[in-house]
Write a structure and sequence with these properties.
Length: 446
């Protein structure tokens, strides 16, 4: 009799434990526990929400904030481990060169694009003559774009050229309306203005579709169907874990990630892919956008669609230093695409954080530090000549090259680059924007 009583207590305790584990499971994965149905590989445990990062002195990286704890900037190797992506290593670089038949872009050679997901699969397929498409985007939060905003587009243009593939560019005017104190009209106008800067990067109109969410969502039944599929398969709990949403965020924000996910699926663009569901997608983006695509990759197999592959870039540092990225709202933190040669010169001379020593004597004696010097960092983005860059690095480190001289090299690199951009942008007419933004078949072959 007593024995039976002990058994019942044991069973009760075991049942309680199981129930608790089920609750924990749901909290961590956002899904109900089902026996024999393990959670998917990268179901996100909330380890990158803003709250989690603030308290332990780690780098903070999410779609809305980037701040590093060290003056050298974000520790990107740690980020790879934390996000569970893969490093772009020598082997992958060589493969990209072999498959594309081109020397790797200097953004790849210099580790500016440094991390990826499933790039080998994209190359495997391409080698078997199976094409893929590119997807990138821009949140149009103001008319003014700065040089940092060009990085993904410069790189995407290179990918489009070397692989000869279609590109879709999402302008998330809806996102900016939801997050910022802006009207719908303003956001839509910024889409059109920003589209001109994107077009000025040289994209091929026959291979590129740029779309405003505010326009395309309502115009494309297939796009909206994919949005709804994603919405059905991601819980509030999951997006809270990934993006740090709280109960007081508006419901538009909570469902927005499904809208950024949808262009990852070729069936969202029947006019381009003729209803094909299985054209692989490659997304070049800055690493702060990865949370959106972790979610996308998690949900894709559950709605019968392909996971997109990714190439991640580091951030373009603010003039004040690599601890934070450029911000369009602080005019002195960035070089704008509308800046005059004189403004460029003044901003760099006044604000570019220097890794040099305080006096010429000390600098000559001890040399400068290129790891934290913003002018040098900018040159790694924009000075294409490897030998020149290496020589500058040597001379600056040894003290032969002074900070003022280094700044002058940067000024003389950026001034013509931005002037050329302004010239190309002037050539972009409203009709051209209209053409790029019209849903239509694109010209590509399999
Ligand atoms: N959310 C991005 C931003 O605020 C815009 C964006 C939408 C994007 N889709 C994308 C960026 C795909 C990179 C890749 O800028």
């Amino acid at each position: 009799h007593g024995c039976w009583r002990i058994r019942r207590a044991e069973i009760d305790a075991a049942v309680q434990l199981l129930l608790k584990l089920k609750v924990d499971y749901k909290q961590m994965t956002g899904q109900d526990y089902k026996a024999g149905c393990p959670p998917s590989e990268n179901l996100i445990v909330s380890n990158n929400g803003p709250a989690a990062d603030d308290c332990d002195g780690e780098d903070l990286v999410d779609p809305w904030n980037v701040s590093a704890s060290s003056t050298k900037g974000v520790d990107y190797d740690k980020l790879i481990v934390r996000f569970g992506s893969s490093k772009i290593d020598k082997e992958l670089l060589e493969r990209i060169e072999k498959v594309s038949g081109q020397r790797a872009h200097h953004f790849l050679r210099r580790g500016i694009f440094f991390s990826h997901r499933d790039m080998h699969q994209i190359l495997d397929a391409y080698e078997k003559h199976k094409s893929f498409y590119l997807y990138t985007g821009r949140g149009p939060s103001s008319e003014a774009m700065h040089v940092g905003h060009l990085i993904p587009f410069i790189f995407t243009k290179w990918l489009q050229d070397v692989f000869d593939i279609p590109l879709v560019v999402q302008m998330t005017d809806d996102e900016k309306y939801l997050w910022k104190d802006l009207t719908l009209e303003e956001c839509h106008r910024f889409t059109v203005e920003n589209a001109k800067d994107i077009i000025a990067c040289g994209f091929d109109v026959n291979k590129t579709f740029i779309f405003s969410d505010l326009d395309y969502m309502g115009a494309s039944p297939q796009f909206y169907r994919n949005v709804v599929k994603v919405q059905k398969h991601v819980t509030f709990n999951q997006v809270k874990g990934i993006f740090g949403f709280t109960d007081s965020d508006c419901i538009g924000k909570i469902s927005f990630p499904a809208i950024q996910a949808a262009p990852s699926f070729s069936s969202s663009f029947p006019q381009i892919f003729g209803g094909k569901k299985d054209v692989p997608c490659l997304i070049p983006c800055a690493i702060d956008q990865d949370p959106y695509f972790r979610m996308t990759r998690d949900v894709a197999p559950r709605i019968g669609l392909l996971k997109p592959a990714l190439l991640h870039s580091t951030f373009f540092p603010a003039l004040q230093g690599a601890q934070t990225k450029m911000s369009a709202s602080d005019p002195n933190s960035s070089i704008f695409l509308t800046d005059t040669p004189k403004q460029i010169k003044n901003k760099i001379n006044k604000h570019a954080f220097s890794g040099g020593k305080d006096t010429v004597e000390e600098h000559r004696k001890y040399g400068g530090n290129t790891e934290v010097d913003v002018s040098f960092l900018y040159l790694t983005f924009f000075l294409e000549d490897d030998e020149k860059l290496e020589k500058i690095k040597e001379d600056y480190t040894s003290g032969a090259l002074l900070t003022g001289e280094l700044k002058k090299i940067l000024i003389e690199t950026l001034q013509p680059m931005i002037a050329q951009h302004q010239e190309r942008r002037k050539q972009v007419t409203d009709e051209m924007v209209q053409q790029f933004m019209t849903p239509r078949p694109l010209n590509y072959k399999f």
